[in-house]
Prior knowledge:
Layout lengths: L5 E6 L4 H11 L3 E6 L13 E5 L1 H8 L9 E7 L15 E6 L4 H46 L4 H16 L1 E11 L14 E10 L9 E3 L6 H8 L3 E3 L16 H6 L6 E7 L5 E11 L11 H7 E2 L3 H45 L6 H16 L14 H12 L10 H4 L7 H32 L2 H5 L2 H26 L6 H12 L1 E4 L2 E4 L3 H7 L8 H19 L10 H6 L21 H16 L11 H13 L5 H9 L11
Parallel strand pairs: 1-2, 1-3, 3-4, 4-5
Antiparallel strand pairs: 6-7, 6-11, 7-8, 9-10, 10-11, 11-12, 13-14
Helix pairs in contact: 1-3, 3-4, 3-8, 4-8, 9-10, 9-19, 12-14, 14-15, 19-20
Amino acid sequence: MPAELFPVYYISPIFDSFVSHIESLLGERFAFYSVHTSDISSLDLSSPRILMCGLPEFKLLEKRPAVELSALSCILCLEHAQQFDVAWTGLPWLAEYCVGPPEPERLAFLLNRLYSLSLTQAEMHRLSAQLAQQRHRLQDLNEIGVALSTERNLDTLMDKILKSSMEITASDSGSLYLIETRAGVEEDPKNPFANKGLRFKWTRNMSLKLDFSEFSMDINEKSIAGYVALSGEPLNIPNVYTLNQNYPFNFNQSFDQNTGYHSQSMLTVPMRNPKGEVIGILQMLNKKRDWSAPLDLTSPQALQADILVFGAEDESLLSSLASQAAVAIENARLYAAIQSLFEGFIRASVQAIESRDPTTSGHSERVAVLTVGLAEKLDRVDQGPYQNVRFSRQELKEIQYASLLHDFGKIGVRENVLVKAEKLYPDELSAIQHRFELIRKGLENDYNLRKLQYLLEMEKDKALQFFPELEEEYFRRLQKLEDNFQLILQTNRPTVLAQEASQRLQEIQHEVFSFNQQDYPLLTPFELSRLSIVKGSLDQDERLEIESHVTHTFEFLSQIPWTTELKNVPQIAYAHHEKLNGRGYPRSLNAEEIPVQSKMMTISDIYDALTASDRPYKKALPISKALDILGFEVKDGMLDAELYKIFVDSKVYELIHHSA
Length: 660
């Protein structure tokens, strides 16, 4: 049957005479086929067709599933004695009925009407399917746009762009080029591309596994990508090996020759940003019948059958996707620039902190390296209390920022307190030194005066007999003074104060030297209080001031409008001096209240403070000794045992010891 003829089935011999009268009139539109009652149950009615039948055949049709009759238009011819059942009016496949033999003219009219209705329905089905396909394509584009807009990593973004472009155009291969500014090349107002180059950034290929390297090329009409960049218009090439001679470019066949690939159809479109500027190129290669299947590169016949030409719809879809891709790439670049700017601000802040206390230079960076390293190790554990803890890339960045800025609040601490290396400030120690020097001069003066007094009061020989005793007493007092001063120097160091030294300091404080009718105490009560600091170099007020840096840090970081991914930076930094047993500061949190990120930072912070070689008030401890001290703090309930175990077992500490 010719494809354009519409099939009409009729029951023979009942309708033979009717068909013979109208077949000559309708033969150019319809193809008539006679069937018998016995054929009705098995007759294929899946495609559009007309059936003229009587009541027996109609009853057989009613027994068939409705889905088998969806494309049927039935004309029921009843005998005069047969009644039309009103219930039949609800049957979608019953198009018309008549009582008695139908007139040929009436039958011809009815068939033509059903034919027109069938064509209309077919067109509606076609348009509906096309609309559904367009809706699906737009939905795909929308989903792709959403996916691209959330990606911040440029390499991952470019790979997503290519994958989506290849999928939506059924391409076997794709490449992405970005326009870049070339350093040292001056701009030309008349040529926006004068100082620009086209960089091959990314590629994908479903039929070849190959590595690729970036390369840069000039933007000119000698290449297809350069031509599209300059023209700003899409270019659809049915076959790259049969290019129009009017094109100024040639197809570079070296890729096919070197890899065994076969390039044929190509679609190249510009990526324009919202300003209309071309920022890159998308190039699709080899549209396929079956996108999911790789090409058989060994069979020319298969390649000829599988590779199609890109259509206008492909061009439209790829151009739409390219626009979304351009926005996404510019957003990713802007995000990277903002992140670089912000990280520059962070590192400048750290430098500002450490410039006030050069003895801790590099501390914040090392703490960040250790804490992020510990988090990465924790992310891989598959047993224990932290087996379900996982950190995303952004959460690791959050940990890094909190670690870098954990001591920023020290900018609110007085510099002399911040860098205080000994119990006495330099000017306070200098005052004691001058006082002792004055006392030395006083002792010497007293010694000389007494000798002069003897010489004046008695004969010289007799006076000289007293000189040895005077000298002995003088040197004894001078030595005691020196011993006291050395004790002061010794106790001034930030070591643990022994009980014996504390008692001697109190005795020294009660010693007074009188000179010129004025009393000079060796130590003032204030100086005694300073030297009596039991551990370290800070008194209680100074220690509280130093500890206040944590609150200053939190208050400062809370003023920064962090993104959702980084919102926990202030809280993480806020808890880096808290201890599991509630004896930390400033809030005395218990274990459950301390974020795991802060627990990790605490271990890193203490370890670096113990092993750092740049502290003037203490020597750097060996790694083993520092780990032992951390272990003691674990036993005392201050540090997390599991995190300490991971820190030690995974040798996280080696991250800051490059020679290890």
